[in-house]
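Subject: two folds for Thursday's group meeting

Dear M.,

Sorry for the delay on this. The cluster queue was jammed most of the week, so I only got both jobs back this morning. I'm pasting them in the order they finished. Each block is the input sequence followed by the predicted structure tokens. Could you check whether the formatting survives your parser before we put anything on slides? The first protein is the one we discussed after the seminar.
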Amino acid sequence: MVCEESEIVLAKQRAVHLKNCVKNLFEVSFNLAQQEHTLKMKRFDLNERAARALFMVSVSNNGYLPLSNVYENLSIDEMALNTADIEFCRQIKQQSLYCSFVAYHIYKTQYRGPNVANGEEYKDRLKLQITRRLLNLLVDNANVLHDYNKIDNFQQAEIYLKANPNIVNNSLLDFSTVLVFILYMEREFQLMHNAAFQCVTLRAILNDINTLKISARESIENFFIKVVNDKDYRRNFLLQLDMLVLSVKSVEKLYRN
């Protein structure tokens, strides 16, 4: 009985830990999604006020109102909104592709609503930035992405990465992480697990490159030696893999709770 109670407590602690990890991991994405929604609502509000002002001009008793007075506040608000828009786009560019991708997914699922108001269409900034970056990445790395994302085990990964150490970079990690989300949304769960495997592998190798100040070839060699011979290291790798998959599946639900 005592054993069962301790296991329940441990399970609850792990659940809380996972929830906190997911929230921390995607906090920036949720903030970006909220900023996109705020900008959209402010843009719609500005357009509505401009349309109302134009109507008041058309129906005024003397046929007109001084435009400088009618639109003075609108002009000030539009300048402030344009400045906020530029700053938001700058923030998106500074974030990783997967961070922006998650933000856009959250934005579309949590902030549903039309993108047209008063005849004006709001063009999602997140979507535009993601599309541009994905196209650039695909054009520059089409063959690498096609070959690498077929890998689903340590043996294949070791052979491919040792033969192509030059592909180990943050761009490939970024794309692999985005692919995890895409495949999850398309309900391609086996392919999603494969992409998650590749993502965690790259993350571990890049981490050693940065912390140990070694070459990609040396880091690849170290990684596969440790993951084969060190049980704790392998266990931690599999834990990171599970955490990534669970975070992708749980991101919206955990944040709302």
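Second protein, same layout:
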Amino acid sequence: MTAAPSIAPSLADLRSALDHAETELACADMIDNFGRREKELAHWRGRRDAIRAQIARIEESF
């Protein structure tokens, strides 16, 4: 039997996702509509912070 493929994202995948989240966060900061801006900023900050935490956990395991 062969092992099942890993469903965990690779470190490269996480770094790519982090770049994307940081770009989206910068774009969200330029939204003119205050309510939408705040909602988008909160979403992308949370996403960025979650990815950073995942990367830190992986790097700590090395």
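Two things I noticed about the second structure. The CA atoms of residues 7 and 13 lie 12 Å apart. Helices lie at 11-28, 34-60.

Cheers,
T.
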